[in-house]
Amino acid sequence: HTSTVTTPYRGAGSVTGRVPVGIGRKRTRVVVTGGAGFVGSHLVDKLIKRGDDVIVIDNFFTGRKENVMHHFGNHRFELIRHDVVEPILLEVDQIYHLACPASPVHYKYNPVKTIKTNVMGTLNMLGLAKRIGAKFLLTSTSEVYGDPLEHPQKETYWGNVNPIGVRSCYDEGKRTAETLTMDYHRGADVEVRIARIFNTYGPRMCLDDGRVVSNFVAQAIRKQPMTVYGDGKQTRSFQYVSDLVDGLMALMDGDHIGPFNLGNPGEFTMLELAEVVKEVIDPSATIEFKANTADDPHKRKPDISKAKELLNWEPKIPLRDGLPLMVNDFRNRILNEDEGKGN
Ligand code: NAD
Ligand code: UDP
Ligand code: UDP
């Protein structure tokens, strides 16, 4: 569905969603909520590089100014400290809605706030999209499949989610966000896109956010044992962040609503991941076993045929090539931290 409805409020100024700026040039005005976070800041880099005007909305719960500081002074970049749980008035063409803590440690820290961000935050951004006629993209998650009974997971799978567990604020929150997105599409003709993102890694991940890749890489650099939870036989599929950013932009700019799985189908047990980290970062790295967390999904692997076919997208960077790309960033930040402590 490509909406061609024009309303007096339609901020785009054209049905293509691009604003005429001078002769022969069109520029898109884009909002990225959560744009100071890990994925958001990489998306912002690519949008700015393409020549878009970008407004980042972030409350800095898990995001950092450092992630977008290199754009300060660029007249096409704007950073607003704002919590998406509160309404906001802006005029743009596209809204990439990423604001929401993504790591289990962060989203469990204040579960009610996580739900409010997912529900009220998404509602506000959809209200905004409706008022100004902007295109809206939701970054949902593979967690909507819960502890999946179907493997690999296709978009048609409805999931196996515990509604009253410690992860529910996140996975049920995102499920509701998907529902809201489709209801605004059906009820208010908002042009929407839904991405279901699988585990993603890369530079700028929070050092201590508890996610497995950031943990293992930071532990290997700090010469600490890598903490494998449970028996380490649970699986995940890890996608490098630039592949995800390409997928999100292909989705936004394409003609299909989704939902689309965006992930790398390469599937690894946590023990295998530890082996790869050892191989590419430090051959002397060791592992230690720790108790697993509640409701941990046993396996996860995207079926990406739909995105391949309709978005002409597939990830390009395998784990062994992607991990080394985050090591320098992690090393520098760990070094700065140590210097900060006077070590
Ligand atoms: P992140 O924690 O680095 O980024 C989230 C950003 O949102 C941060 O900058 C944070 O400060 C901001 N934020 C949180 N609550 C907010 C609020 N109420 N108002 C305004 N800003 C707020 O996480 P990420 O890995 O970059 O994830 C980005 C999006 O992608 C999230 O929606 C997440 O659910 C989704 N996602 C990520 C992954 C992954 O593996 N990284 C997997 C699935 C889905
Ligand atoms: N909203 C917003 N910015 C806008 C338009 C709406 O933040 O430009 C918020 C609005 O405050 C409301 C939500 O989005 O909380 C949903 O708006 P909508 O107009 O769909 O619903 P209503 O306000 O009628 O409940
Ligand atoms: N995990 C691990 N060691 C860690 C952190 C996580 O073995 O130091 C495991 C965790 O139990 C889960 C998997 O790695 O099975 C992925 O966890 P993560 O928090 O990165 O993402 P999610 O559970 O959201 O997929």
Automatic annotation (TrEMBL):
Keyword vocabulary terms for this entry: Decarboxylase, Lyase, Membrane, NAD, Transmembrane, Transmembrane helix
Family: Belongs to the NAD(P)-dependent epimerase/dehydratase family. UDP-glucuronic acid decarboxylase subfamily.
Chain's role: Catalyzes the NAD-dependent decarboxylation of UDP-glucuronic acid to UDP-xylose. Necessary for the biosynthesis of the core tetrasaccharide in glycosaminoglycan biosynthesis.
Protein name in the entry: UDP-glucuronate decarboxylase
Enzyme class: lyase
Pathway of action: Nucleotide-sugar biosynthesis; UDP-alpha-D-xylose biosynthesis; UDP-alpha-D-xylose from UDP-alpha-D-glucuronate: step 1/1
Organism: Solanum pennellii (Tomato)
Needed cofactors: NAD(+)
EC number assigned by the record: 4.1.1.35
Domain NAD(P)-binding stretches: 32-324
